[in-house]
Amino acid sequence: MLYSESPWKRIVPKVTSDVTDRDKDLLDKVIKQFDVKNSPRYRRNQQGKNETYCNIFLWDVTIALNTEIPHWVDANNNATTTLKGARELNANSIVNWMKTYGVQRGWTPVKQDEALNYANKGKPVVVLWKNPKGIGHVAIVRPGKMHPTKGIPIAQAGRINFDDLYLADGFGSRKDLVFYAHE
């Protein structure tokens, strides 16, 4: 097993990228190293509550890209590894965190067509959906080509775990998605 099966524990990725080293092939390697389709870390229903782990996959990939979107935050909304007093971010709270704290940390809102351009340059890009009636969903935009009906390529953990399908495969026909890119 490459990484801890325990989704609440921070990982130390083997393949990383940072602002000095971005290209689409490296971004592809960063995403694929987590083997989201097969890794027990992202397996649905680990606690018997039909829960999914999109927030954990997003956390892991953004750690590897040195643009961490945290899973645990302290009272000041900074990423923390100390769980005592920490608050866990689910998909909906990640959307809220990104609006203020993500933007302060270099995440910029972009449109869907811009999101793919960033990913094709190897830059970190995320897609987020806040569900007003439950838990939302988050995913990573990956390099590739726009599908004429399914949209841009993404990787996700969730109801279905995959590392190379499309926006419609993970989010359906939702139009209220937000995208953020990081240099």
Task: Report on the architecture of this protein.
- The strands form two sheets. Strands 3-8-4-5-6-7 form a six-stranded antiparallel sheet, with helices on both faces. Strands 1-2 form a two-stranded antiparallel sheet.
- Helices cover 26% and strands 17% of the residues.
- The chain has 183 residues and is α+β, with helices and mostly antiparallel strands.
- Strand 6 (153-156) and strand 7 (162-166) form a beta hairpin.
- It has helices at 24-32, 54-64, 91-104, 112-119, 167-171, and strands at 72-73, 87-88, 107-110, 125-129, 137-141, 153-156, 162-166, 178-182.
- The protein has a single domain (24-182), classed as endopeptidase domain like (from Nostoc punctiforme) (endopeptidase fold (from Nostoc punctiforme), Alpha-Beta Complex).
- It is built from five helices and eight strands.
Give the SSE layout:
Layout: H1 24-32, H2 54-64, E1 72-73, E2 87-88, H3 91-104, E3 107-110, H4 112-119, E4 125-129, E5 137-141, E6 153-156, E7 162-166, H5 167-171, E8 178-182
Antiparallel strand pairs: 1-2, 3-8, 4-5, 4-8, 5-6, 6-7
Shape-level CATH architecture: Alpha-Beta Complex
Shape: globular
Highest CATH level, the class: Alpha Beta
The overall pLDDT, averaged over residues, is 94
Task: Note the total helix count.
Answer: 5
Query: What is the beta-strand fraction?
Result: 15-25%
Radius of gyration: 15 Å
CATH H-level superfamily title: endopeptidase domain like (from Nostoc punctiforme)
Please give the domain count.
Answer: 1
Pick out its properties.
183 residues, alpha+beta, 5 helices, six-stranded antiparallel β-sheet
